[in-house]
Amino acid sequence: MNKKELNLNKLKGLGDTILDDVEKNRVPSIKVPSRGTSNIVYDEDKRYYVLGDRYGKRSLGNVKQIKKMAQMMSMANFCKGLVETQKTATIREMYYVSEGWDVDFSDQQESNLISEDLEVTLRTTREDLGLMPEEDGAAVYGDLTVKDDDFEINALKSGKSGYSIPPTIDDVEFLDHKVDRVIAVETMGMFHRMVQEKAYKKFNCLIVGLKGQAARATRRFLKRTNEELGLPVYICNDGDPWGFHIAMVIISGSAKLAHVNHELATPNAKFLGVTASDIINYDLPTDKLKDIDVLRLKELYKDPRYHEDFWKVEIKKMLKIGKKAEQQSFSKYGLEYVVEKYLPEKLEAIEGN
Amino acid sequence: MEREASELFEEFKELTASEFFRRNKQMLGFSGKIRSLTMVFHELITNSLDAAEEAGIQPEIKIDLKRVSKDHYILKHKDNGPGIPENFITKVYCTMFAGSKFRNIQSRGQQGLGCSGCVLLSQMTTGQPAKVVSGYKNGDKLKGVGMTFKMDVKKNQGLILKKKDVEVDSTGVALELQFKDVSYSLSEQGAYEYIRRTVIGNPHARIIFRDPTGHQYIFERATDEIPPLPKEVLPHPRGVTADDLIFMAKHTDKRRFRSLLGSSLSRMSNKRLNEIEEATGIDLNKRPKDMKWEEAEQIVNLFKEMDFMAPPTSGLIPIGKEQIEKGMKEILNPEFVATTTRKPKTYRGGVAFIIEAGIAYGGDSGRLVGDQKRAEIMRFANRVPLTFDQGSCAITDALKSIDWKRYGIKDLENTPVTVFVNIVSTNVPYLSTGKQSVAPEPEILHEVRQATMKIARSLQKYIKAKKAAKEEAMRSKVFESYVPVVLKEAALISGRNVPEYDEVLAKVTRREKFSKFTSEVQNE
Fold first, then answer.
1. Structural domain A3-132, CATH architecture
2. Which residues does chain B have within 8 Å of residue A12's beta carbon, measured at their own beta carbons?
3. Is A161 exposed, middle or buried (0-12, 13-18, 19+ CB in 10 A)?
4. Do A66 and B520 touch (CB under 8 A)?
5. Strand, helix or coil at B386?
6. Sorting pLDDT into bands at 50, 70 and 90, what band is B519?
7. CATH 1.10.10.10 occupies which residues in chain A?
8. Do A18 and B475 touch (CB under 8 A)?
């Protein structure tokens, strides 16, 4: 059974449960796995967050739930159309389409929550149901050839900004590559620096510009390069709690999307820097930690995803020096420094072991 | 330079009551343009109601207010009372402190200033005479007399200018007065509002009012029952002063102290009289006119320490909760009304009073301020609306001290309710001569609170039930609109037909009533 049929079957099953109950004069209800914080648990073996066993019931007989049920069924029917015709719609487009339905949403946020309800109930991703996020994924530069629709694209020959990861990354086929690793960086500034300094050649790698918090499609892309192509994935971000966490969401998934983390998390990915130790060792220009940075670092310290000694040490060290540094701060030693000196040393340290 | 006493006393004059009030018209309530006109309406309407009730007639009053120019009005006031015999007309309208109400009796007016005060104001502001047509029964015959007269202020009596016999078809008095420096207003203190409230407090009265624009308002009577006449009751010992006792002693035909006290005061048994004699050592067999001030004082002080039964309450005639309800329904056309009449209580130990209260919700209840409905407080004393000095009144104080939130009213000010409170007493404790606010006697405050809280509870029940019914209807609507959507969409997803769902729909709408939350609600 292919993915399309599988998802159509899941949708049909949802409709059938309700119709079957009504035909037997029973009040139908849908089991929706709970996404409340108490039902999100860190799976030590899988090394990412997963949903627990708790679920809520959406009953046709509950005045507070029936509207959500109507919204969910309308959305499911809309998705059925998308899957059947192999089209996609952004979640924003769907929000506007919903204005023509018999039940509407009060805002985009409400519609987004229902779409997450639907993917968790059907145990699929919203991308598989034809629903796409608004924003594009990250940029990729390097010798990777993909088949996107009917076009073959080489990410080394797609201009200085590289190949943009589409929301439909799952439909993109990896044809060929000549690289040994993947290096993802937080900012596009760093991305362009690495392209200019020909880092892709020096390290024989794909350069991925994350543009801040990685989109679902970007995380999916990184997971596929790691698991399908067997490439090690490294992440290089700003040396502050926010940079740490962008890396951690790629590695261990987010709590909010625990129900799809098995599709998104790349537990083998490694954090390259900038670490607190780097700040000291390379004597980087720094900013003082703000109150909110300190608060966030303390939160991360308690987060089970940061249980490894490496993180414990780095977080403590950053709190101790009370300083943070951006990726670009290496420019203090010249623009080339990061590619010429820093990255080689860090890669050697990690890969040498 | 020294002046002799005789010289000084050349300027010493005796003021008649009329002369005194001419100089002090604010003491009659005539202060301010709006208030002056309202007070005129008050005096005339009150007199007409009292007269009709005493004669056993259902009161009907026709008032016509014409505007001549700015602040200049002609007022025609006609009632269907028993009328005034010819030789009493100028006494009623021109002599201050003449009247039949100087007794310990529950009545609307008390000072006997009312009608003559209006004539005085008219004369002072316009110089015009008053015109009266009176129809009255003389033996079996109906007699009518028309009179034009002025008030001789110096002599405190009337000065007849014209007089003639006229044909009348019923008893009653028609009075025409002119006023300047007064102003007709639709505000809460204005004449229109005064009439509206009068009809609520007097549901047996019918009032037809033509306002200066020519618009005619007809306030129909809500009941045909004429209230029984209040009876005069003897004063309670706790309510008298030494001066009262001396006054009684002077004017009595009794021969002894003992019989004077026994017959002039209520609750005065032989046992009590013996106690007085024993405690004071005063010989109660003395003649009343031998009573000394010190003795009177001694007796009054003793009264305060003695145990007396509460004063008789037979003299108090409340409007009655049914009648208040009728009045409020007739005028306010409300969604809901609750009324109550409390049992008689006393204040200052010896003055009996009754508190009545009503609350109306929705309809025309409340006061429209801008485009917002505000709460309206209607205060009455012996059925007479009190429209001024709201802020200093015990009734207002008591209402404000109630925790309205407990009765489902979040914000009294902005709720469309009318609260009605009437205090019935032979002696309403007013705060000032204008008689527009009640003194904050603790017993009165307590009774107003109790009465109002009782009816507020009924209102709360009504509001709750209404809200529940609305929620119930909303709930059914939710199911009726969403159940079909869920099933239609499910059918489309599954490629099946929409099944028969009447029974399921009936089940969920009904089930909802009994158990609101049948399944676990998960937070997102």
1. Orthogonal Bundle (1.10)
2. 493-495
3. middle
4. no
5. strand
6. very low
7. 3-132
8. no
Q: What is the pLDDT of residues A203-235, one digit of tens each?
A: 999 999 998 889 889 999 999 999 999 999 999
Report residue B205's pLDDT band, with 50, 70 and 90 as the boundaries. very high
Angle of CA points A114, A111, A213, to nearest 5°: 90
A27-50 pLDDT per residue, tens: 999 999 988 778 888 888 888 888
pLDDT tens-place string over residues B262-304 = 888 888 888 888 888 888 888 888 888 888 889 889 998 898 8
Q: How many CA atoms lie within 13 A of B397 on its CB side?
A: 15
Query: Hey, what are A273's tokens?
Result: 């820097």
Distance in angstroms (rounded) separating the CA atoms of residues A202 and A348: 13
Q: What is the mean pLDDT of residues A114-138?
A: 87
Q: What distance in Å separates the CA atoms of residue B145 and residue B315, rounded to the nearest whole number?
A: 35
CB atoms < 10 A from the CB of A248, how many?
21
pLDDT tens per residue, range A250-272: 999 888 788 888 888 999 999 99
Beta-carbon contacts of A349 under 8 Å, excluding residues fewer than 6 positions away, are none
Hey, are the CB atoms on B507 and A113 less than 8 Å from each other? no
What CATH code would you report for B321-463? 3.30.230.10
- Report the pLDDT value the prediction gives residue B515, as an integer from 0 to 100: 42
Digit-coded pLDDT (tens) for B344-354:
998 887 788 99
| CA neighbor of B110 nearest in space, from B20, B40, B28 | B28
pTM (whole model) above 0.95 = no
Looking at per-residue confidence, does B474 or B205 come out higher?
Answer: B205
Contact indicator for A129, A118 with CB cutoff of 8 Å: yes
* Distance in angstroms (rounded) separating the CA atoms of residues A149 and A146: 10
Q: Is A185 helix (H, G, I), strand (E, B) or coil?
A: strand
ipTM for this model: 0.77
Q: How far A122 CA sits from the closest chain B CA (Å)?
A: 14
State which CATH number among 3.90.550.10, 1.10.443.10, 3.40.190.10, 1.10.8.50 fits the domain covering B237-305.
Answer: 1.10.8.50
Question: Which residues make Cβ contacts (< 8 Å) with residue B482, sequence separation at least 6?
Answer: A66, A67, A69, A70, A103
Is B124:B25 a contact under the CB 8 Å cutoff? yes
Catalytic sites of A, residue numbers: 96
Q: pLDDT, tens digit, for every residue of A60-113?
A: 888 889 999 999 999 999 999 999 998 889 999 999 999 889 898 989 889 989
**Residue B53 · residue B229 · CB < 8 Å:** yes
What is the second-level CATH architecture of the domain B17-219?
2-Layer Sandwich (3.30)
Q: Are A246 and A273 in contact (CB under 8 A)?
A: no
Q: What stretches of B70-220 adopt beta strand conformation (E)? A: 72-79, 130-138, 141-152, 157-165, 172-180, 206-210, 216-219
Q: Which fold has domain A139-352?
A: Dna Topoisomerase Vi A Subunit; Chain: A, domain 2 (3.40.1360)
What stretch(es) of chain A map to CATH 3.40.1360.10? 139-352
Q: Which of B491, B519, B522 sits opposite A36 (nearest CB)?
A: B522
- Residues with Cβ within 8 Å of A336's Cβ and at least 6 positions away in sequence, in order, are A197
Cβ A18–B487 below 8 Å, yes or no? yes
For chain B, residues classed under CATH 1.10.8.50 are 237-305
Residues of A in contact with B485 (CB under 8 A): 70, 73-74, 102-103
